[in-house]
Design brief:
The chain is α+β, with helices and mostly antiparallel strands. It contains 5 helices and 7 strands. Strands 1, 2, 3, 4, 5, 6 and 7 form a 7-stranded antiparallel β-sheet that branches.
């Protein structure tokens, strides 16, 4: 159950973050979650949207360098030690986390963690075998 994530490079300047958000907003595309990492001159905006193909076309047409990546989302209890438990499973399995970000789902004290793995299918298999709830798009985008 991989989820598509869009990554785009944006300049590190005033207003650069609002422009892609405005493009998506005007098209009626809701951003479910995003993560922003920066360097001195550029940043990488990673986001998950339901209509990722439409968003990719819109942003590419506006000259953004857009990359589509498979990520894995899991649901855990939003409490101390929740992330540590998952990281221990990954460490013992020899899976490397390239990056991750999280958001609370607002549902029953749960949080959603979004991971980028080199081998997402292997990660899904290992996490599922350990009883971790790996989420599909239906869960991520439900209201």
């Amino acid at each position: 159950m991989k989820i598509k994530q869009l990554s785009l490079f944006i300049e590190n300047r005033t207003g650069a973050l609002s422009e892609p958000c405005r493009i998506l907003s005007e098209a009626g595309i809701n951003i479910v979650t995003l993560c922003l990492a920066d360097t001195q001159n550029f940043g990488i905006m990673r986001l998950i949207v339901k209509e990722w193909q439409k968003a990719e076309k819109l942003l590419s047409a506006r000259d953004y360098a857009v990359k589509t990546t498979d990520v894995v989302a899991i649901e855990i209890d939003d409490r101390p030690g929740g992330l540590a438990k998952i990281l221990m499973i990954l460490e013992k399995s020899g899976l490397n986390v390239e990056y991750m970000y999280a958001f609370t789902s607002g549902k029953n004290g749960r949080a959603v963690l979004v991971f980028r793995f080199e081998k997402p299918d292997e990660a899904i298999k290992i996490l599922s075998a350990k009883g971790i709830n790996v989420l599909g798009e239906a869960h991520i985008f439900e209201k």
